[in-house]
Amino acid sequence: KPKGRLTAKEYIDGILKGDRVILSRGITIVESNLESDKKLAKEIIQAILPHSGNSIRIGITGVPGVGKSTFIEAFGKYLIGQGHKVGILSIDPSSQRSKGSILGDKTRMEELANMEDAYIRPSATGDTLGGVANKTGESMLLCEAAGYDIILIETVGVGQSETAVHGMTDFFLLLMLSGAGDELQGIKKGIMEMADMVVINKADGDNIKKSEMARRQYQNALHIFPLSESGWSPVVTTASAIKNIGIDTVWEEISKYKKQVDENGYFIKNRNHQQIKWMYNNINEELKQLFYGSKNIADHLSDLEKDIISSKISPVEAAQNIIQEFKNSI
Ligand code: GDP
């Protein structure tokens, strides 16, 4: 056992006891790319898996500046006041490039970060969204095993990462602003469609009237989407994260949702579906890496590209040839 590192049993016992320091160190192991850590991570996850899942997982997205961290600070404090333990994670595939991550700046949620019943973890870094999503997904399991019964997963509403967050959460919350069209806010239609709830934030001061108008517009816009399999009709509300207005309504709606999907069976069905999909996403990712990561294949592919351009081979035949070559090599 390398110096300073705990045994698997020490990690497992510590996490199950809700020890935040050990939880943090456990997540560091789960995030690590070292082979020796990967083995340890597997052991930890295997052991805590039966103790995970006892939470509601909430995805929170919205463009930078919409007020995500301010909202999470207010919402987290509210939930703790209701007797919950809140784990806060993020998915930010850009963090590798920008060298800073959302949630990275601890001062963003200062009060919450100092609360006993909150655990805040900045985004994992990685090369691929799939890799980052794996780390966040497994960190979530560790948080659940440590007794956090509400998990908030934050992401920036500008790319593919919302789909990843949607794929690992039970409820998807979209924060928006009034007075700007969704195009202006960089919110794609697909993201609106994933939302179980839209919250128009910054509904305070001069913004109150505009926010109410925006609320009605978005509520109408959401009506044109077909009802999701959950049977839940998305709701639109207004809130002020800074003034602590409308925060309780968000939790009331989420609780209503939870009750409905528990009763109609969608909660479990969706969780099961997500687990299976998580496996297939990994298979797809690994297969791609195995294929494109091979030097032989890479060389041959560039030859094939030339042959296609000079009409020596059809694209279909080229694909078949290279797959055959790959099959022969394994
Ligand atoms: P994020 O980038 O989405 O995490 O947004 P932040 O939480 O960092 O907020 C961006 C800016 O909007 C900050 O200056 C906040 O103080 C401000 N802000 C956040 N929530 C509200 C709100 O409810 N009302 C008003 N007026 N300002 C807010």
Structure ligands: guanosine-5'-diphosphate
Q: Report the major sheet.
A: 7 strands, parallel
As a whole number of angstroms, the C-alpha radius of gyration is: 22 Å
Strand order of the largest sheet: 3-2-4-1-5-6-7
The fraction of residues in strands falls at 5-15%
* CATH class group of the largest domain: Alpha Beta
Total individual domains: 3
Could you tell me how far the N terminus lies from the C terminus, measured between alpha carbons in angstroms? Answer: 35 Å
Order of helices and strands: HHHEHEHHEHEHEHEHEHHHH
Kindly identify the CATH topology of the largest domain: Rossmann fold
Structural class: alpha/beta
CATH superfamily of the largest domain: P-loop containing nucleotide triphosphate hydrolases
Q: Count of DSSP E strands?
A: 7
Q: Figure out the total of helices.
A: 14
| pLDDT < 50 runs, ≥5 residues | none
Query: What is the residue-mean pLDDT, rounded to a whole number?
Result: 90
The dominant shape is globular
Helix content: 40-55%
CATH architecture assignment name of the largest domain: 3-Layer(aba) Sandwich
Q: Gist?
A:
With 330 residues, this protein is of the alpha/beta class. The chain contains 14 helices and seven strands. The chain folds into three domains: 1-51, Single alpha-helices involved in coiled-coils or other helix-helix interfaces, CATH 1.20.5; 53-263, P-loop containing nucleotide triphosphate hydrolases (Rossmann fold, 3-Layer(aba) Sandwich), CATH 3.40.50.300; 293-329, no CATH class.
